[in-house]
Amino acid sequence: MSAKQIDEKKLERAIRKIKHCLALAQSTNENEAATALRQAQALMREYRLTEMDVKLSDVGEVESELHRVKRRPAWDQQLSIAVADAFNCTTLRRRKWSSAKEQVIECATFVGVSPAQNIALYAYESLHTKLTQARKEYCSAVRSGVRRSEYSAETAGDHFALGWVWEVQTKLKGLVPQGEDDSAGHPGTGQDLIAVQAQDKALISEYLATQDIRESRKRKGVELDINAQIAGILAGSKVELHAGITRGGNEILALSAST
User: Which domain holds residue 151?
Assistant: First the structure.
């Protein structure tokens, strides 16, 4: 094991201990709180860490195994954006060399304050599987003449998928608490949630500032097949999302589509 690996492990342990001490520093016992705070400050000095460094250690990124050899289609990108927005994350388009395919591939990456990025990844991949199947069926319907379109089956399928995503995006926003309703007997809960979300966004921005990230090129507007869009919206409305997701919760998003 290299010295660098040992140092990284020692640093991880130190950060965990600092977080523990900072939590104890909130104690109502003044002596215990003061001792814990001194220990946290001593560890920060020893490892040359700031409070922001400690908070940033909670930010992580996860990469989807779903990928495209070429650029991911607009509906795929829109799906990852919708999911990231719902779970207070940021999504990136990651292009990298695949040794297995011997070419560059593109996949979605989610950056968030743990465990938000992992929940977003699960939601994205689950929804992507459902949408891929729904789009495939729509394309087949266009090819067979059951559905009519002035576009090719593949293009009409893309337009269908965008409508599907727009509808499911609304469902996702309704699923996750947005901090706008304080009327359920929990005064201040909404404002507290908004504050946490704002802090998470700030931490993600700090994290991304240290990464080499290029801005995505803006796509030109395109004329869409309105019939395909409507079909996609109707199909998306049949997707049911069930969850008890909270920030840091352990429950998994369950997805189903009614027939």
Answer: 60-257
